[in-house]
Structure formats: structure tokens, C-alpha cells
Amino acid sequence: MDVQIHPSWKEALADEFEQPYFRELTDRVRQAYSTATVFPPGSLIFNAFNLTPLDRVKVVILGQDPYHNYGQAMGLSFSVPDGCPIPPSLQNIYKELNTDVGKPIPMSGNLTHWAQQGVLLLNATLTVQAHTPKSHAGWGWERFTDHVIQVLSQQREHLVFLLWGSDARRKEMYIDPEKHYILRSVHPSPLSAYRGFFGCQHFSKTNYYLASHGIAPIAW
User: Fold this and answer.
1) Under 8 Å between Cβ of 59 and 119
2) Chain segment 65-114, per-residue pLDDT in tens
């Protein structure tokens, strides 16, 4: 199956793209785009992979599924385009970033600059119907992103996995803790951020770990 994705990922995931479940998934997703409003735009479904090639990944931040309102989803977990109001969870991420490393709170929610430095901003489910969170859950995306985590764990070393919330932590079973650094927290959502996300210091801990292994830190 010809999937429009960065060559590094296309090679690593080639067998997965030929699996029957993935063919069924893509058929179902195409049908959804033709009959309903689905986010992100089709060209951005694999945006995280295209901005962060496999061999450049340093950090993985796992989200749930894309934003489900107009103008928000851009194929990167937690990220919204320039000019879009910053969603509450990202506001809390920025607050923790400010407290942790002193970075001024940005005016834009666009995290493309993180992705380009090696932060894979991966949602567990890559598409969603407008105004209907988790509407494409259970279609097969979770199996695909499970495999992505396995590939990263097996083929790379010294990655940092930021697992924020119970959905993200379900992926932990696919990560080799002997090879990688796993940081866990509650979700940055306003419903849970005060129960342990604030004060987690994941950004400084990430950069300390990367630097200790001779890897350039992230300019958050």
C-alpha cells in the first residue's frame, strides 16, 4: 500500500502497511472523509512522521486523538496552527514549561519547531470526526501507533517517552525501559493537571537525560 509518509518511516513500517487491518482502516478513513467532516486535513494525517523522521526522533509525546473543532488539528499531538486559540491542555503545558525551565509562555500553540528538533508529537488515534472526540477510536489506529512505539523502542536508543495520562501510559508496555527514559504524569488537562502534571519537571529532565547521552537538548 502506498502511504504518503517520510521514507524513513515508510521503510520501517512497510510490513504494517500491508496488514489486513491497516487496509481496512484506510478504507474506513477514506469513507469517513468522503461522507463527514474529519480532522486533520487528509494531507496532515501523517504530519508528525513527516516532520520528525525515524532517525531524528529524540523525544515522544503521546496524545489521545486530534482536536475535533475547526482549524485546530494539524497532525501533531497538542499542537494547533498559528493564530488558533491555545487549548487548555497546551496552556498548562506552557505553564509547566515556564515554571520548569523559565521559558516565557508562547503566544502561539504551533509546536512544529518541537517536531523539527526531534519531538515526535504522536496521537494514539490519527483521525477524528468533527465535534466528536474518540469517534475513530477502535478503528485500528491504536494498533498502528502501538507498532510505531515498538519500532522506536527496538530500532533506537536513549529516547525519552513522555506519558501524560492513562491513554498514553497504555503504550508503556511496548517500550524497553533498559534502553529508554520513561517519564510519567497525569494528563495536562485542567481536570487533572493539578494532581501531578504541574511540578513534574519533564522538560528539564528530558534535556538532562539527552545531554547526559551526548544528544543535543530540545530548545523548548
Assistant:
1) yes
2) 999 999 999 999 999 999 999 999 999 999 999 999 999 999 999 999 99
pLDDT of residue 3: 87
> Residue 156 and residue 154: Cα distance in Å, rounded?
6
3-class SS at 183? strand
Asked whether 118 and 111 are in contact (CB, 8 A), the reply is no
Angle (CA) 81-39-134 rounded to 5° is 115
User: Residue 38's beta-bridge partner residues?
Assistant: 129
CB 19, CB 114: distance < 8 Å: no
Q: Tell me the catalytic residues.
A: 65
- Using alpha carbons, select from 129, 161, 139, 148 the residue that is nearest to residue 59: 161
Task: Kindly report the number of other CB atoms within 10 A of residue 186's CB atom.
Answer: 18
Q: How far apart are CA 127 and CA 82, in angstroms?
A: 20
3-state class of 120 per DSSP?
strand
Tens-digit pLDDT profile for residues 134-144: 999 999 999 99
Looking from the CA of 12 toward its CB, the CA atoms found within 13 Å total: 21
Cell numbers representing residue 180 in the block: 529508554
Residues forming a β-bridge with 123:
63
β-pair type (59-63, 119-123): parallel
Give pTM, 2 decimals.
0.97
* Cβ atoms 161, 181 nearer than 8 A: yes
Q: Which residues contact 170 (CB under 8 A, 6 or more apart)?
A: 124
Residue with cell 475547526: 70
